[in-house]
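Many introductory courses stop at the sequence. We go one step further.
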Amino acid sequence: MITFTKHSLQKLEHLFEELGYVVRYEKGSFNSGYCIVEDRKIVIISKFFDAEARINVLLDILDTLEFEPGILSEKATKFYDKIVER
């Protein structure tokens, strides 16, 4: 189980970086609180979300992504495995 801390948020952001995505926090009117620009691998999340909401959004997005876990670093792979256990 992942804890909802700023440290966990940073680890999730790093995992997205390793997958080639840029995570940005912007203000705007997002129906679900985030927007994904697929062709440019950009994730935009409402900057008004707290750490827990940001983590939940990133976890939701991560569930939709298809990738080979072998491309991740050892540290990111361990964190990803911890996430998958949830």
